[in-house]
Here is the input.
Amino acid sequence: MTFYRNSFHHFFDDKILQATAYKRTILGFSVPSMFLLKLKFLRVLHVENSTINNFSMAISECIHLRHLILRNCVSVRLPPSIGKLLYLQTIDLRRTILESIVPESLWNIASLKHVYLSGGFYPTRNGKQKELRTFHLETSSFNYFRNKLPGSTLFPQCLRQLYLFANVIKEDPMPIVEKLPCLVVLSLSGYQGRTMSCSAQGFPRLQRLDLSVFYTEEWIIETGALPRLSFGSSLNMRKLPDGLGQLPSLKELVLKDPLISEDDITCKDLRGKGCKLR
Here is the structure.
């Protein structure tokens, strides 16, 4: 019987490593030091809390790789040759701090669907990805843009889900992300700017908006914005914006701030339209 999957925890022996050459899935957890061989048949590489000593040299040999997951790892540098992974669908580098920015060649992988980064993001207008659905980006990347989001044209226009951990952002991110034409889910965490504004015709397809660790004094929602929004959560505001009561599709709103009064005019308007508040 042939096994195509290996899992390692806390150790990595040279003899075991030699036996992995034909594996299609490798899982590694808390491995203090590991080396990758030429793994041309590998489909899934999932490593956490570990050190891969020769990652930048070995990864370009994994030409059939579909899912690359390196969480909370060290000494990771994405080489330009990562663009050779023509079948790559998922790259997950959450809590992994890269030694350099993400190479432009990553954005030329047409099959890429899900990207999770903790840093190193530098967008490009020349990306070829047409399948990208999920983009998860954490704080440190925004230092490249002087603590603000890059322009909307630098994000993949096919993006459907966007997760931003943005406690260093000083400028309102909404005028940027509201222009993404296919965006369905937006999760924004950490923004503490004074104001936030959604303009008319903004977020034409957005259905879910999650705001966490979120504090702002004023949120302006112009008429015509968020026409398809059906769910909103974690709104830490003392007074709800008037524009929420005008949203035609809003069905449920989760409020975390106990200071919002039951007599809030917008709360009454929403309940009157059948929106569930909790």
About this structure: The longest helix spans residues 265-272. Residues 55 and 76 are 7 Å apart (CA to CA). The chain has a mean pLDDT of 83.
